[in-house]
């Protein structure tokens, strides 16, 4: 059932939108030297307020209730690089107040918001239980088949079903098979595009690739009337994009560069994200269609003249074979929801401008030849892949990653699609939902 906007926990989601904007401006201001001194005092004051909240006698601070409040709001201390030092406090009974203040000082603003329940999703329990309900309802859905044109994908257990979400403040929740690894396939195309725009500039990218939905299957041999791929979210466009990224470097250097970017998008240390070489080889052995597509584009001069066909197809296929799970995918999607800043490291991984271009094209082209209907019914930027993954972005609020291998004729996960529809309906997430705009006026 759809929840009311004005009353109840969903209104918290919306009421926090203005706070997110304030948060952004605070981040921008913190790069200003003059402000820094003021901010330091503020942080100390906030750290003291926080200390007093958990101190009975004004001299010692109780650690356990402090940690419990952080966990209650959806923060995962054990695998959130920002909060690891608090995870390490587990088992410490109390700290001297000054010791506590110096430990929390740098994060005081964030911690204060967290313990007061003022992160972007204020009522995280409500969101968790609604998400769990939608997950359970969608578990019953049958239909679709594993993609089999990449033989390795046909061997995956079709009953796998997992979802994860991560908010722009790093609150996380997962259900089902969310730690099972799978290949990112076309869901990686949105991240490749964002990285590509930053690397070579959107003008150069769009000198070679269009920005219109194709209305055709994702690997259709079709170009627009300027002999360009319709957009970067389908195979033709993604192949051309692969040819443009660091073409002077060797294949392994190019892939190394891109994998490091994926690590950063997911908030992980370098060399965490890897390629599933078996699926990659399986696709390479059956890549006639993509080969035909790239030679067709070569004949139409859609690629830079010095492009190596061999390296391009290999780079493209390796990018499709990047191995993630729902946890990682949700953080990556949340990085897009957060203007390119990874929520669990606070690192700016891609620029806000590239995120804007990416979300725009995900909205219009992210779901292949189902993009129009998806935009109509769900109204959120999303990108799917034939492994059965869908990454969804709720701008300024959260990213989600859904995984269920059976896909429909368009190549979209059947359970994932229904999950998106219900998610948008229950939380009023459609970007053009009129109550959303009404609320903005308050
Ligand atoms: N839709 C997809 O996920 C397609 C990706 C797949 N690797 C291919 O090139 O066909």
TrEMBL record:
The keyword Hydrolase applies. GO terms for biological process: glutamate biosynthetic process; L-glutamine catabolic process. InterPro entries: Beta-lactam/transpept-like, Glutaminase. Its EC number is 3.5.1.2. It catalyses: L-glutamine + H2O = L-glutamate + NH4(+). Keywords: Hydrolase. GO terms for molecular function: glutaminase activity. It is an enzyme of class 3 (hydrolase). The keyword Hydrolase applies. Homotetramer. Belongs to the glutaminase family. This is glutaminase. It comes from Amphimedon queenslandica. The gene is 100639993.
């Amino acid at each position: 059932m759809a929840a009311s906007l004005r009353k109840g926990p969903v209104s918290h989601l919306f009421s926090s939108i203005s706070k997110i904007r304030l948060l952004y401006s605070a981040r921008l201001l913190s790069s200003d030297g003059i402000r820094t001194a003021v901010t330091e005092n503020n942080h100390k004051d906030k750290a003291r307020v926080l200390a007093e909240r958990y101190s009975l006698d004004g001299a010692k601070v109780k650690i356990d209730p402090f940690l419990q409040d952080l966990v209650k709001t959806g923060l995962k201390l054990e695998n959130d690089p920002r909060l690891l030092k608090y995870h390490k406090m587990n088992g410490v009974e109390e700290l001297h107040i000054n010791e506590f203040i110096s430990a929390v000082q740098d994060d005081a603003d964030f911690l204060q918001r967290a313990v007061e329940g003022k992160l972007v999703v204020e009522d995280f329990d409500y969101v968790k239980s609604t998400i769990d309900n939608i997950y359970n309802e969608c578990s019953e859905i049958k239909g679709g088949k594993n993609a089999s044109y990449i033989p390795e994908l046909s061997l995956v257990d079709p009953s796998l079903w997992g979802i994860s979400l991560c908010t722009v403040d790093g609150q996380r929740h997962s259900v089902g098979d969310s730690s099972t690894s799978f290949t990112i396939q076309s869901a990686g195309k949105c991240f490749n595009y964002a990285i590509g725009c930053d690397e070579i500039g959107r003008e150069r990218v769009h000198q070679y690739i269009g920005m219109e939905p194709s209305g055709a299957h994702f690997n259709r041999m079709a170009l627009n009337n300027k002999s360009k791929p319709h957009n970067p979210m389908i195979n033709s466009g993604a192949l051309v994009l692969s040819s443009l990224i660091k073409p002077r470097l060797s294949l392994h250097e190019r892939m190394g560069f891109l994998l490091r970017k994926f690590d950063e998008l997911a908030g992980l240390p370098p060399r965490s994200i890897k390629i599933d070489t078996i699926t990659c080889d399986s696709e390479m052995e059956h890549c006639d269609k993509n080969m035909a597509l790239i030679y067709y584009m070569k004949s139409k001069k859609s690629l830079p003249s010095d492009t190596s066909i061999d390296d391009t197809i290999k780079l493209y296929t390796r990018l499709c074979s990047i191995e993630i799970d729902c946890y990682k995918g949700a953080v990556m999607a949340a990085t897009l929801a957060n203007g390119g800043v990874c929520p669990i490291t606070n690192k700016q991984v891609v620029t806000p401008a590239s995120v804007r271009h990416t979300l725009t094209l995900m909205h219009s082209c992210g779901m292949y030849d189902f993009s129009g209907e998806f935009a109509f019914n769900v109204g959120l930027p999303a990108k799917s892949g034939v492994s059965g993954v869908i990454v969804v972005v709720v701008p300024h609020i959260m990213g989600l990653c859904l995984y269920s291998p059976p896909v429909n004729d368009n190549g979209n996960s059947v359970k994932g699609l229904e999950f998106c529809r219900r998610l948008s309906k229950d939380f009023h997430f459609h970007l053009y939902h009129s109550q959303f705009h009404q609320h903005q006026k308050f």
